[in-house]
Write a structure and sequence with these properties.
Shape: globular
Radius of gyration: 16 Å
Helix content: 25-40%
Structural class: alpha/beta
Number of strands: 9
Largest sheet: 7 strands, parallel
Order of helices and strands: HEEHEHEEHEHEHEE
Oligomer: single chain
Strand content: 15-25%
Distance between the termini: 32 Å
Strand order of the largest sheet: 1-8-7-6-5-3-4
């Protein structure tokens, strides 16, 4: 799936800091991109985020599980720790699936539940995965769920620290980054197995 800017109403998108889109590419060739193992963030951000907690709830297929493992690996590599309950986490991520309607309904229920815990301005609430690559989903979340800070697609997992740095330093209140980079496979990203 890909989202084109014209697919979303200008009324919903007005006033947001980041809206990044690109054209959908066909998987005719695969290119492997070696992601840097070092973390490219400011020392000030790394000092701020170290010791904070994260919580990831994963819906869907093995690809989503793998993306969640990469997110966990990135977080652990900078000194963050996994929270046992999402209410205790500083960063909460719902990694979504759009294949089954039941999973989509569960995600909307979870998004609604998160509204009640958005009690600190430095708490970051994220929705990622293939569900947010659908234009009507992005519109609905932006319009009805203003407590969600970050929406990003399946090909933007490696950018999580950049998003967090932007949000936590007040450079944006919300970030939407949904673009298709089909054909690129990122290697050498940190990872933590879900059941370790």
């Amino acid at each position: 799936y890909a989202v084109a800017p014209e697919a979303l109403s200008s009324q919903i998108l007005s006033g947001y800091t980041f809206i990044l889109f690109s054209e959908f590419e066909v998987w005719d060739t695969l290119s492997f991109v070696s992601a840097p193992v070092s973390i490219d963030c400011s020392d000030e951000f790394l000092s701020l985020i170290k010791g904070k907690t994260y919580f990831i709830r994963t819906y869907g297929c093995q690809a989503n599980v793998r993306d969640s493992e990469i997110l966990m690996g990135i977080f652990e590599s900078i000194g963050m720790h996994e929270a046992e309950k999402y209410v205790d986490a500083d960063v909460i991520i719902l990694n979504t699936c759009a294949v089954r309607e039941n999973a989509v309904d569960k995600v909307y229920g979870e998004i609604g539940n998160l509204k009640g815990i958005k009690n600190r301005k430095d708490k970051v609430l994220c929705v990622c995965g293939c569900m947010v690559e659908q234009p009507h989903v992005v519109e609905k979340i932006l319009d009805k769920h203003k407590h969600i800070n970050l929406l990003f697609g399946t090909h933007e997992v490696q950018n999580i620290l950049s998003y967090l740095e932007t949000l936590l330093f007040g450079k944006a209140k919300r970030i939407v980054d949904i673009k298709s980079q089909s054909g690129k496979v990122y290697e050498n990203l940190p990872s933590k197995r879900m059941n370790e």
